[in-house]
Design a protein that fits this description.
210 residues, alpha/beta, TIM Barrel, eight-stranded parallel beta barrel, globular
Length: 210
Amino acid sequence: MKKYISKLHFLTQDLPNRTHLEQAQLACEAGANWIQYRCMSKSDEEMLAELHPIASVCDDWGATLIITNHVHLVALADIQGVHIEGMDEDLTLIRNQIGEDKTLGASANDFNQIKRHIDNGADYVGCGPFGHTDTKPNDYAHLGLSGYEKIVGELVKSGLNIPLIAVGGIESKNVTSLLATGIYGIAVSGAINNSEDPKQMYKQFHQLIF
């Protein structure tokens, strides 16, 4: 089943001065149609208390709501899918758990991981990091533009096709060059959430992509 995948994914994050709900509201008001709820600091009960109003905001604005990692919460709120950050996770088990109707995304850093995700039922792949990011510190090599060019080339050569979303340390100045590599879209968190005017920054990314 082919799913709609946006070309611009907005990720909420744990911030001291702005709740996930406030982040989602600002993004939707700026035109976001894809919200990924990425909370690493709360209990299931706390997340559900936040997810229900976020789902209402997304519903009001016609935005898809994806949750990061917490597969068991997908059925407990109006959530359209899940994004799995563990690059070695077995997506077949997760697909069986959430069903065919839900969107399933996964993170990857190289072609082999992407191919495995495709084989195991992913609807899209978040590929990165592009560069340095403080939002999700990790030890994976930065891909840069050449890394995405190589991966896109390997996908084409192998006859594989999946929406490939660049993620990790992306700023608005990188968007045009990244899209030129042949990737499908971009995921952004810190560049928007940490800006002086998050709503305007989202609009800037949107204008560059669409």
